[in-house]
Amino acid sequence: MITASDFQKWLSVFNVAQGVVPTPPFSFPLIGEYGGTGVANTGKTITIGGNLSTIGAFTSALTMTANTAVTFPTSGTLATTSQLAPTVAQANVTQTGFDYDRPQFSFSYTSFSFLGTSYNSQITATMLEIGSGADTINMGNVQVLGVSSGTTSFSVQGVPSITTSIEFPSLIYSQLSQVINSPSLTVLSYPELLYQSGATLVVSPLITLSYPKMIYSGSLAVTSASLTTISAPNMLYFASFSGTCGSVTTIDFTSLQRMTGSWTFIGAGLITLSLPALNYVKGSFSPNSTSLDTLNLPALVTVNTNFSPVLASLTSLSLPNLVTVGGAFRINLSILTTFSVPSLTTVTNVFGPVLFSATTISFPALTTLGSTNILLASVVATLSFPALISVASTWQITAPELVTFSIGSTLLVITAGNFTMTGMKLNQASVDGILNSLAILDGTLGTTSYDSRTVDLSGGTSSTPSAAGLASKAVLVARGCTVIHN
Length: 486
Fold this sequence. Notes:
Mean pLDDT: 79
Shape: elongated
Low-confidence stretches: 14-18, 81-114, 119-133
Strand content: 25-35%
Distance between the termini: 128 Å
Structural class: mainly beta
C-alpha cells in the first residue's frame, strides 16, 4: 500500500517548477484507498483546523440552501425542534375534541399531544414555584406546565421591586393556573402559548399583554394600572374575564366564539369593544366602562345568565342576533338614544333595561319574559311588544313621557303579580288596549286567567278608558281584579 507519506517522498524527487510532471503509480482523482475523495472537486477546497473523525459506518449528507455558518456545541446531541422535550412538564394530555365549554383532554403521565402534535415530557416536580428575587425569569425550552399530585398553580412571587421580565419563549400548554404578582413587571411574554387553564395577573408597569397564538384560556383575571392593550386575536374559547385595568384602551379578541364563564372586566378607559365572532356566553356578560362608546356584538345569540353592561357613554346598541338571555336583561345606559334587539325572544328573569334617553323602543320578536321592571325615564314616548306570549311575574314600567304602548294579540299568560304603569301620558287607545289584553286572559284558548290582581294605570296625564275600555275593566273586576285609572 502507498501511504500519504510515501506519496510525499516520491513527489519530492521531481522538479515540478521546471515542468516535470510526475506519473504516480495510481490515477487521479485520488480514490479513498489512497486518502482522496474519489471525486473531481474542481475549484473546491477543504480547510480543516483540527482533526476530523466520524463514528458509525453510515452515509451522511448535509444539505445547504445557501452560504452557511454554524457554531457547534462542545458536546451533546443535535436534535430537530420537533424532538425537543419539555423541561418542566406534566406529560399528560391527549386532545379528544372541543365542546361548548372547553377543549377536552385525557391524561396520562407518559406523553403529551395537543392539536395533532406530540411532545415528550416528564414530571419533574409536584409544585413549580419561581420567585426568589430575580430581575429576569426566562423559562427557556419549557413547553408544558402541568401538575402531579393535585398541584393546580404556577406561582411567580418575586420581590416586587426586582422582577421586571418574565418570559415563556417555548411554552405551548399550561394546565397550571398561573399566578403572577410582580408590580415592577415590564415584560410578560407568551409567543407560542396555545392553551392555558387560567391566569391571575397583577402586573404593573406592564403596557401590553399579548397571547398571539392562544386558542383557549381558562379564567383570566388582570389587574393593572398601566396596561393599555390586552390581545389574543386567535382565541376561540374563553372561560371568564375579570379584573380592573383603568388604562386599557384596546382589547383584541377578534376570533372569540364562546365563553364558558362570565365577562365582568372593568376598564374605565376602554372606548371600543368589538367581539365580532362571539355567539355564546354561558355565564353573564357585564362589561363596565365609563368611556366606552362603541359595543359591537353582531354574532351574539345566547347569554345563558345575565346581560347587564354598565356603559355610561354608550349612545347606540344593536344586538341583531341576540335570541336568548337565560337570566336578567339589565342594561344601565344613561345616554343611549338608539337600541335594537330585533331577534330577542326570551328573557328568563328580570327584564329591566335602564334607558334614559331613548325615544322609541320596540321588541318585535320578544315572546317570553320572567318578570318586567323597566325604567324608561325622561323621554321614551313609544313602546311595543307585538309578539309577547308569556310573562312569569310582575309587570311594572316607569316612563313618565310614554304616550303609545301596545301588546300584541299573542299574549296568553301573565302568571303572577300586578300590572303597573303609573304616572304616564298614555293615550286612550293605549289604555283601552292594555285593559282588553288583560280581559281576554280568561283561561280559554290556551290563556291563563288573569284574576285577583291589581291593574294600575293612574297618575300623570294618561287618558280615561273609552266605553270599550270600561267594558274590559268590568270583565276584570268580575274576576276579582282591582282596576285603577284616571
